[in-house]
Design a protein that fits this description.
Elements: H1 2-9, H2 12-20, E1 26-27, H3 28-32, H4 39-51, E2 55-60, E3 63-68, H5 73-99
Antiparallel strand pairs: 1-3, 2-3
Helix pairs in contact: 1-4
Length: 111
């Protein structure tokens, strides 16, 4: 299932759909209106998210509402955790380099 989650998150449209669901459930039509995509294309993206367990679908009459289910994102966090130390160290080194006093260049030194 972790592979499904990573595959689902690999697409920027699907990440934007998840962002749209942060504020609460949304109807499929409302979600489709936020994108310059056809409704069937948005439905396909929602199906991928549903299969990955990132959203759940709730039929209400003729509409379908989608709810965010963040539980599978814990798998992503667990996978990313070891890399956090690496990137934190790299960013600290970059900040130290940028904060260092500038060294004079050849054109700054008298000839």
């Amino acid at each position: 299932m972790a592979t499904d989650v990573f595959s689902a998150l690999a697409n920027p449209v699907r990440r934007r759909l998840l962002d749209a669901l942060l504020d609460g459930p949304r109807a499929a039509g409302d979600l489709a209106g936020r994108f310059e995509l056809s409704r069937p294309a948005v439905s396909e993206h929602l199906q991928v998210l549903r299969q990955a367990g990132l959203v759940r679908e709730e039929p209400r009459g003729r509409q379908r509402y989608y709810h965010l289910d963040p539980a599978p994102l814990a798998q992503v966090g667990a996978w990313l955790h070891p890399f956090e130390h690496y990137w934190r160290g790299r960013l600290t080194a970059l900040a130290d380099l940028l904060d260092a006093e500038p060294t004079p260049t050849e054109k700054d030194t008298p000839a």
